[in-house]
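Thread: sanity check for a docking pose with calcium ion

Original post by kr_44:
Hi all, I'm comparing my docking run against an independent structure prediction. Below are the sequence and the ligand SMILES. Could someone generate the full complex and paste the structure tokens? I mainly care about where the ligand ends up relative to the chain.
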Amino acid sequence: MLRKALHAIILIAFQRETSGEVSPNQKSSVFSRSVYFMTMNNNRLHGYVVERFQSASLLLCNQKCLRREWCTSTNFKAPEQSGKTGTCGLNKHSYSSVFESASLREEDGVTFSLLVKFPCHSKPCLNNGICVQDGAGLSFHCVCKAGFAGTRCQACKFDFEDGKDGWEKTGTTFNNQPTYGDNPTARKREPAKQQGDWWIGGYEDRPSEAATPGRIQGDGPRGTLTSPFFKIIGANITFLIGGGCRMDFIRAELVINDQVE
Ligand SMILES: [Ca+2]
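Reply from moderator J.T.:
Ran it for you. Here is the predicted complex with calcium ion included:
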């Protein structure tokens, strides 16, 4: 356990890696990130140093750590005389090893800095999902907007099993949607072959399990139902659609960058 609370926080925002050559296919790995170092004066972490060098300041020492993907903390020994350089040690370790071992020991003039990454800074949640940092900032989870699912909100969940929240409606066609169950079969028509219990059927009028099976609103109402914006990931996208043959009246459109595809 840490014997003293980590007490100081230094914000170093948007450190951008500028050294080294970057080939075209590596450009996406050029990063900028926001991090905190939690520092602890007069302490040194023993046993995890990978790189050691002379450094003029704690700030430069920690900046060097940011440029090493493996670096998780630093030990900086301040110069004993003005005009001299200090010593910077870059450490590599698991986070639990810092908190569980006795390898953090008191040493005058040495500052231990623990890098705490802020995982939400890279905006890992897709489709406007909200990133929520967990605990000490070492992990996160995504709160997905309606219609999306998955650990990164990467998957569309346009199956209407939880309603049609997030969809924009015009007109009256979709007032009583989604439809519960195989409503066409209930009135002895061809089966809906829907996915799950709920689906969108503009002709139907069974918006709850308790509503009368087989009831319809017919073809009179007009309207549109538009999904939230989503990101197409991968090479394929599939739809499960059925309906009449009048394209001028009934159709599904895939709109990409305001163009109907
Ligand atoms: Ca469904």
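Residues 34 and 148 are 27 Å apart (CA to CA). Hope that helps with the comparison, let us know if your pose agrees.
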